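Late entry, evening session. Most of the bench is empty. Finally got around to the prediction I had been postponing all week. Sequence below, unchanged from the version circulated by S.P.
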Amino acid sequence: MRIIIDCRYILDPPNGQFGGISEYADGLIRALLDLKTGNEFVLFFSEKYSGDLAVARGGVEVVRVPVKRGSFFFNHFVFPRLVRLSRPDIFFAPQGQLPLGWRGRAVVTVHDLAIFGHPEWFPGGFSRWFSTKLVVPWSLRRAEKIIAVSEATKKDLMRLFKIPDEKIFIVYPDVVVSEHVENGSSDYFLCLGTIEPRKNFLLAAQAIKILREKFPEAKLLIVGGRGWKFAETIKEFDPEFVEELGFVSCEQKFSLLAKAQALVFPSLYEGFGLPPLEAMKLGVPVITTRAGALPEVCGEAARYVSINDPVELARAMEEMFAENLRAGYIERGLKQAEKFSWKKSAEEILNILSL
């Protein structure tokens, strides 16, 4: 089988830090290529990508295309013609969107539909309208099969778009963490993710202030991009005990995470939630909410809190200073993380592509 994979959005990340969908695609593609099943893969990358995935090898062709950001005609009509020249059996879009000009067989991965269920969490504008009103709905109708990264995402697909059950396949992703970091608890808690309303980091900032009444050395570090409403959000952060670090390299991220007292992830909604899985794999306790797919990711391993109670979150953070409680969360987290495997995910997706 000749499989085309759209990798154009996997660009060289700032400071070596991937966004969630790029991290998903990078890990999945590596796992697919490692299976060595005799299938042929054609990977379409941006001409600016310089990572090691874009290397031709046995059974793998690499095609580079110009970056045409904002070019409707190129992205939706010229690009599909370039793809057809590669004589594909099927086109796979790990980012969930198909070019409007694509007319062949296709499979997409859907990660998160929060923008449809809670538009108030996102900025407006033409780009949002074009994506939510045209490209995403069309892609979901056009795709032969849809891969959902969680049961929560599958339910959203069925509820919001009336996609039939038999068209959706749940395949959980995995994460790859550094093997060269040392664990050890410090006095800081860590938040990972873009600073934007739905990540709910303001709740963590309020909780750390309460926690410091008993543990005055406690701090909150926030690592990630600066998203919508960033400026007004950080105005609420007290720089004395809340430090916003922006993007850091993957190695720095894992080093900070491994030494954190716990990951604090008070999200209002997640289609999956990679940071909690990263934390569990590194042996770090997770404090999170039951929003979206987070209970699927964390199982019984996390300390769950409500999405709007800073006192409850502060109490959960305080528990992490009790060694026996913290050790229990670490043990359960490591066991829960073993349920996720890129090899298993790749095998399942390859089977779906072959149906």
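Two things to note before I forget:
The CA atoms of residues 147 and 169 lie 5 Å apart.
The first strand starts at residue 2 and ends at 6.
Will write this up properly tomorrow.
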